[in-house]
Amino acid sequence: MSALSLDSLPAVVLSWPSRDLHPNARVHWSRRAKAAKAQRHAADVLALQAGWARMPLPDGRIHVWIDAYPPDRRHRDTDGVLSSLKSALDGIADALGVNDRRIVPHPYLHDEPNKGGEVHIRITGALEACDRNP
């Protein structure tokens, strides 16, 4: 499958990540684990519904574009949002049938809030300018 056909895939839209998943949240490990499991499952199911199920992918990295729309105007940092989405990215890797180390996230935290908050995730094939072979 070429990168062009990957670009035509619909985006997966997730709800705003639970506060329990934020790296600075001081919550009991079982509460964090429950939130992580729920987020991973939701991302897996939504990716499958979007038609991302074990499709043929190009070799190399899979670039994941993350557009995060916060639920309110409170200040957030991109690293915190990306860390909060770790389980979602694992769920997407599950749906794609790939090792999550192939995923290269490109997060963008929007300034304008979206009521309730949401995260739009799109995938594209490897970009030669960004792809590094170790």
Task: Please tell me about this protein's structure.
- By secondary structure, the chain is α+β, with helices and mostly antiparallel strands.
- It has a single domain (3-124), classed as Holliday junction resolvase RusA (60s Ribosomal Protein L30, Chain: A), CATH 3.30.1330.
- It is built from four helices and four strands, in the order H-E-H-E-H-H-E-E.
- It has helices at residues 3-7, 29-49, 78-84, 86-96; strands at residues 12-15, 62-69, 103-109, 118-124.
- It has a four-stranded mixed β-sheet with strand order 1-4-2-3.
- Helix 2 runs parallel beside helix 4.
- The protein is globular and about 40 Å long.
CATH class: Alpha Beta
Strand content: 15-25%
Tally the helices: what do you get? 4
N-to-C order of helices and strands: HEHEHHEE
What is the distance, rounded to the nearest whole angstrom, between the alpha carbons of the first and last residues? 24 Å
User: Could you give the count of β-strands?
Assistant: 4
Mean pLDDT: 87
The CATH topology assignment is: 60s Ribosomal Protein L30, Chain: A
For the record, the count of structural domains works out to: 1
Tell me the name of the CATH homologous superfamily. Answer: Holliday junction resolvase RusA
Name given to the CATH architecture: 2-Layer Sandwich
Instruction: Determine the fraction of residues in helical runs and give it as a percent range.
Output: 25-40%
Main sheet, how many strands, which sense, barrel? 4 strands, mixed
Walk across the major sheet and give the strand order: 1-4-2-3
Shape: globular
Structural class call reads alpha+beta
Structural Rg:
15 Å
Low-confidence stretches: 128-134
